[in-house]
Specification:
heterodimer, A: 197 residues, alpha+beta, 60s Ribosomal Protein L30, Chain: A, four-stranded mixed sheet, two-stranded antiparallel sheet, 13% strand, disordered N terminus, B: 443 residues, mainly beta, Rossmann fold, Neuraminidase, six-stranded antiparallel sheet, six-stranded mixed sheet, 4 helices, 32 strands, 9% helix, 46% strand, globular
Chain lengths: 197, 443
């Protein structure tokens, strides 16, 4: 995903927040979001070039090594757009400060808007995908990203969305929206993506 | 706080494969995986001069230059300065060929001599003698017989281990392995590979390839299995896999995150982070019964368990005070003690093998590796590279391997706990991260 594309989304997200009480916004477009693809079966890798067997004498030099290969799935996600009913689908994004998981007032309004979309469309469910920037410890970031997504879930539940319709997934720092190692990229990567399906 | 700085200007790229092939005119066995390239900080403050004499060989082409492997190992440790081959007064290979008077002017205390005999069918015999130049006597001698060509590198590392232990009193960790994750962009797709390589970056073996992220490899204490986090099913699951690929099992796939696996020192339990009951907390799973015991209960983040060497307590990271800091929980009493106070961000604790030090990811402006001395309570920032994370001790505690970013590229680096020596390991066409230094292999 390019930074420019993400910036568009950022703007779209802010516009959505500003128009939170006035109905739908249109933030569709191609992206890396969307459904996860099924994995192909595990395949035993052929002919591992392992360190070989044990030496004949004197020392134990370790194990014969083979790897397993997981089939190459389709790249992440699929495009979002209008569904069959002509209803817009959304990919808004909630952004956070460094090491923060509390929603600002603006972000609360944004989440409230999508909570209302869910209330108006009871057949739909929502995926909340939490992310962090790359700084600091990857496992802490995995927990922090979940904390962010759960903070968004809490607001949605506060505005009436049933917990059962909300799925929280944490990607930690593993799926950055912007690949640069700059403050700007980090700002774009500290996010929760709201995916309504 | 003492700041110990490694000067990146002193790094000099050493392409071991290229130089070997160039000098000796033979090809190394082809490897499917791109090897990690090592850059070594060329400062030798207090490094001990040592003579590693080229080994004699009775055949046409030696599959590996064992003396060079030993030379490189010792040099990378920062504690030894092997003399250039060209400066050696002679190249003896047998004890009776050594004229000690020749070696005295070089100001070396010790020398290694050896010979390799081709036994046919790609089998070799290796004799080495480690000599004390001043006392004019042999320190140790060792013979390996019937060794296949592809294991000669490991023989070299074993020799390095013997020398290191003889001269420092600390067991060498050259004959060990490291696990790490490479990330490559193949046709626009991110491709993750969990690999295991020798500690010098040679002989990389893929353990798992996946289009989805792989994180947090943790070695079993016997060095035969890895636990790790894989997103192959769309979210973080903990997997255990044997290095030979014959055993692979999902250990934790609860709702929420399944992360930060850490094998207990006795190999019977796995500490992990689960959020199935709310926020991220530390749990310990009995690997036989799969029974889970919840260790922490807090609304905040508790993650990154690291076992004390005695297995009786676990260090972990918690943001219960607002920012991540390291705490210790005693498993019998449940008592919790705060460990780190220096700065606003101390995460991912790793315990030194002797239990004295805790290495952490330390954030204060940038992110670097910090070292908390549990005996003196002193805290030092060890590294000064960019985006430093994922510290892991060598099994002898003499080195810390970590991940960092240099020139927009994820690399591994090695630093000594005193911050003096350092090395950088990188792959040519991708990022490398999430390192985990494996245990001692059986002698």
């Amino acid at each position: 995903m390019t930074t420019a594309w993400t910036k568009t989304l950022l703007l779209a997200g802010i516009m959505a927040a500003l128009t939170a009480l006035s109905g739908c916004s249109t933030t569709g477009g191609a992206g890396d979001g969307g459904t996860d693809t099924d994995l192909q079966p595990l395949e035993q890798q052929m002919g591992g070039q392992g360190a070989g067997g044990r030496p004949a004498e004197d020392v134990d030099l370790g194990v014969e090594i083979h790897g397993i290969e997981i089939g190459n799935g389709v790249a992440d996600g699929s495009a979002l757009g209008q569904d069959a009913q002509g209803l817009m689908t959304y990919q808004p994004i909630v952004y956070f400060g460094f090491d923060q998981s509390i929603l600002s007032e603006e972000n609360t309004a944004l989440v409230k808007h999508y909570a209302q979309v869910l209330m108006d469309n009871p057949e739909k469910t929502v995926k909340l995908e939490g992310h962090t920037d790359e700084r600091g410890s990857p496992e802490y970031n995995l927990a922090l990203a979940e904390k962010r997504a759960k903070a968004v879930a809490q607001v949605m539940m506060l505005f009436g969305v049933n917990e059962k319709r909300i799925e929280v997934i944490s990607f930690g720092e593993e799926q950055p929206a912007a690949l640069e190692h700059t403050e700007e990229a980090w700002t774009l990567n500290r996010r929760v993506e709201i995916k309504i399906h | 706080m003492q700041l110990l700085k490694a000067n990146p200007g002193l790094f000099k790229s050493i392409m071991l494969t290229a130089s070997l092939a160039g000098v000796f005119g033979f090809m190394l066995p082809t490897q499917a995986q791109a090897r990690l390239t090592i850059e070594i900080n060329e400062s030798y403050e207090n490094a001990l001069p040592i003579a590693i004499v080229p080994f004699a060989f009775n055949g046409a082409a030696m599959p590996e230059n064992i003396a060079q492997i030993v030379r490189d190992d010792l040099r990378r440790s920062g504690k030894f300065k092997p003399l250039p081959v060209g400066s050696l007064p002679a190249q003896p290979s047998l004890a009776e060929e050594v004229d000690f008077e020749q070696w005295r002017p070089l100001d070396v205390d010790n020398m290694l001599i050896g010979k390799v005999v081709d036994m046919g069918n790609d089998r070799y015999q290796i004799d080495v003698r480690f000599m004390d130049v001043l006392r004019k006597q042999q320190v140790f001698g060792k013979r390996w017989s019937n060794i296949p060509g592809k294991q000669l590198r490991q023989i070299g590392h074993l020799i390095s281990d013997l020398i290191y232990e003889e001269l420092t009193g600390v067991r060498g960790a050259f004959n060990t392995q490291i696990a790490y994750v490479t990330l490559k962009n193949e046709n626009g797709k991110r491709r993750y590979t969990l690999e295991v390589a020798d500690a010098d970056g040679y002989n990389p073996q893929p353990i798992l390839r996946s289009p989805k992220p792989i994180m947090s490899p943790s070695w079993s204490p016997d060095g035969k299995k890895l636990a790790y986090v894989s997103f192959e099913k769309g979210r973080s699951y903990i997997i255990v896999q044997s290095l030979d690929g014959k055993y692979r099992e999902t250990l934790a796939s609860f709702s929420g995150i399944n992360g930060a696996p850490a094998w207990s020192p006795d190999g019977l339990k796995m500490a992990m982070t689960l959020s199935k009951d709310g926020s991220a907390d530390i749990y310990v799973m009995d690997l036989q019964t799969r029974a889970l015991k919840r260790i922490t209960r807090d609304w905040s983040i508790e993650t990154e368990a690291a076992w004390a060497p005695d297995g009786r307590s676990i260090y972990f990271n918690s943001d219960r005070r607002g920012q991540p800091q390291v705490f210790q929980v005693f498993l019998d009493s449940g008592e919790i003690k705060r460990i780190t106070y220096e700065g606003r961000y101390n995460a991912n604790p790793e315990v030194s093998p002797d239990g004295r030090y805790i290495a952490v990811v330390h954030g204060q402006g940038g992110f670097n590796i910090g070292l908390q001395d549990l005996q003196t309570s002193q805290f030092n920032v060890l590294t000064h590279t960019f985006l430093d994370e994922s510290p892991t001790f060598s099994p002898n505690g003499e080195m810390i391997l970590y991940a960092m970013n240099q020139n927009d590229k994820g690399k591994l680096a090695i630093v000594s706990p005193d911050g003096k020596t350092s090395q950088i390991l990188s792959v040519q066409d991708g990022q490398v991260r999430e390192p985990a230094w494996g245990p001692f292999l059986n002698r």
